[in-house]
Specification:
The protein has 246 residues and is of the alpha+beta class. It folds into 2 domains: 89 residues, no CATH class; 146 residues, Histidine kinase-like ATPase, C-terminal domain (Heat Shock Protein 90, 2-Layer Sandwich), CATH 3.30.565. 53% of the residues lie in helices and 17% in strands. The strands form 2 sheets. A 5-stranded mixed β-sheet has the order 2-4-5-7-6, covered by helices on one side. Strands 1-3 form a two-stranded antiparallel sheet. Helix 1 runs antiparallel to helix 2 and helix 4 runs antiparallel to helix 5.
């Protein structure tokens, strides 16, 4: 290889690295913007509660209304902060999974229950199919619960009111197979290669901060599993399938 060829290859490598850095910087900016929006949503009920106390009569009924509203919202704050900590560990390469016997059926059931209010808010139907017997594996119940909730939250976010979400869990060929399917906006083919990349958003207009599916993939891989996505195309729904060894 002569000097000219060597220089050309070095320049091409440098250009590719610059492009990757620019893309990473763009994703960071989009993430910070989306995170700011999500933080605003987190604190909005507290602002509303303060306004209510300032403008309504200070009686037992008003205080009970504020108490009930904040109590209902406290779970959302806890969920948001826990996921923010998880994403921070993913970025730093510090996320680790505990390994102890857990019942994946119970984790999926509990996750579906926690997301039911989101399903109801979006006026969606949900069909759940779980095995009669437990599916036991070595894993981290908290991280697996986050994985289930992210998949359901994602389905709810990208499905129009009146749509349908299917959740199923089964044992197939020595693996636990978790499926979440929806009738939502689908996935564009060009997005598929980057779908599970941290801070990549399917559609900024739908909200979210581009960390859910990356968390799903990371948690699945920490448990020796994998996740796959399928979609016929835009406006034709999507399906996410997680495979975990048992």
């Amino acid at each position: 290889m002569n000097v000219v060829d060597s220089t050309r290859k070095s320049l091409e490598a440098l250009e590719q690295r610059i492009e990757r850095l620019e893309e990473a910087n763009r994703l960071k900016d989009e993430f910070l913007s989306a995170l700011g929006h999500e933080l605003g949503n987190v604190f909005l009920p507290y602002q509303f509660a303060l306004q209510l106390l300032q403008h309504e009569p200070a009686n037992a009924a008003t205080f009970e209304q504020v108490r009930a509203m904040l109590e209902e919202h406290s779970g959302n704050v806890e969920w948001f902060m826990e996921n923010l900590r998880t994403v921070s560990r993913i970025v730093r390469g510090k996320l680790q999974a505990e390994r102890k016997p857990v019942d994946l059926k119970e984790i999926v059931e509990q996750g579906a229950g926690r997301v039911q209010s989101v399903i109801d808010k979006h006026r969606l139907r949900i069909s759940v199919s779980l095995p009669l017997q437990p599916i036991t594996l070595q894993g981290d119940s908290k991280l697996l619960g986050q994985m289930v909730e992210h998949l359901l939250q994602n389905a709810a976010r990208f499905t129009d009111p009146g749509g349908h979400v299917w959740l199923s869990l089964a044992r197939e060929n020595g693996e636990a197979v978790l499926r979440v399917r929806d009738t939502g906006m689908g996935i564009a083919p060009e997005l598929m290669p980057r779908l599970f990349t941290l801070f990549v958003q399917g559609d900024p207009l739908t909200g979210g901060w581009g960390a859910g599916l990356a968390t799903v993939r990371t948690v699945a891989e920490l448990h020796g599993g994998r996740v796959e996505a399928f979609s016929p195309g835009p406006r034709q729904g999507a399906e996410f399938v997680v495979y975990l060894p048992v």
